[in-house]
Structures are given as C-alpha cells and as structure tokens.
Write the structure tokens for this entry.
Amino acid sequence: MGNLGEFARRRGEMPFLEHLEELRWRILWSLLALVAGTVIGFVFVYYFGVMELLMRPMRIAYGDPDFRLIYLSPADPFFITLKLAVVVGVLLAFPIIVYQIWGFLAPALERHEKRAIVPALYLGLVLFSGGVALAYFVALPLTMTFFQNFQSEFLREQLEVGKTLAFVTKLLIGFGIIFELPVVVMILSALGLVTPEFLKSKRRHAMVVITVLASFLTPGDLITLTIMLMVPLFFLYEFSILLSRMIWRRKRAREEAKSSSDPPEGSVESG
C-alpha cells in the first residue's frame, strides 16, 4: 500500500482539474483510435482474407478445402464481418491505447521504473504473438479434430458461423493474454508490488492454478492439448520469477549506491 500511496503522491503533483482534463483527452484519443481501427479492420476482413485465415485450421481439421460455416439469418454475414472488424480494430488500436495509458501514468514513475516497464511492453507484444501462434497452429486444429470425432456416430455437425468464430477468437486471444504473465510480473516488480520471494513462495499455488486454467482453456484432448499449454505456462512462471529477481537486484543496487553516496550523519554536508 505504501508503494501505491507514493505512486498516487507523485501523480498528484498536477492540479486535480488538469488531471481530469488530461484523462478526458486521452480517453477521447483512445476511442478515436478504436473507431479508426474498426474501420480499417472492416476493410481487412472484407478484402484481405481475415475470414480465410480463421477458416484454415477448421479446413485442415476436417480435411475439406471447401469446408464452410452456415448462417441462420440474412443479416448474419454482415454482422459477423462487423464483429471481426471490431476485434481487428481493438488489436490495431491497442498500441495507441497503451501509449495513452503510458502518457498518463509516466509522470508518476521514476526513471528506473520507466526503464523497466518500457521493455516489458515490447516483450508483451512478442509473448502475445507467440501465444496466438501456438493456439492457431497447434491448439485450434487439435481442438477441432477432437470435437469432430466426439459422438460422431450419433451427431452430424453443422457449424454456425457466429458461435464457431466466437469460439475461435476467444481461444486465440485467450492464449495471447495468458502468455502476458511475465509482462505483468515485470511491471508489478518495477512498481515494488511483487517480489521474487513472494512468487517463489506461491509456486505450488501457481502450478495448481495453471493446471486448472489449462484444462479450462483446452476442452479437447486432455493428454496432449492441456499438457501442451501447461508446459509453456510453467516456463513463463519461472521466467517471471527470473525477471522479478533481476529487477529487484537492480533496485537494491541503486538503493545501496544511494546510501553509500549519502554523507555520514553529523558531517558538514549533512548539516
């Protein structure tokens, strides 16, 4: 709580009304970026084969290059395109939104905190892309194959476009978000809210949570798909501990250097 209080104190050096005005403009620019991203996303979805990219793992799983989804309302193709455009728009606008959040919070951060958080943002982009790639190339085809073969002697699939694409996008984005764990730990460690000792003491609890989360997000083959997600998450947790240890070592080194440079109590300089 002390770190949060110090954070608020540093940010509070600006008058309250100026805070509100700055926050209002940053929210406005974020909304404009989201609208512009959605418009661009609509063009991408309609003209540049975004639907084809989402359909490709299903066509591989079903072994049918002409596999198609069904729709139940005449307006469904338009609204599906619009929903996908919003998803693409959020992804396109996300860097601008993060920039606006960063611009609002940066004045409250020390220089060493900024130097730790900025690389974390770039790392987050890489990890998110890695999680999405794992879901797209491995998890999604395996999941679709499993569901295809389940009770196939009694049921015949007719996949509706809305529910199917919602499932696909949730799986892709869910994997990407989960892979952001090291980024969250880096930021919390830079702000002094999490220590490597705390993370190590909670390792057993984390393993249980990771197992449950992997089972929930991979409703397919529990022997291969769940383990396939658990192993990277275990690695990411250990990687988070390593990053937190590095940040705290630098923090303690700065504190020791600062304390050694301070004049002794009672000296002329301290007086």
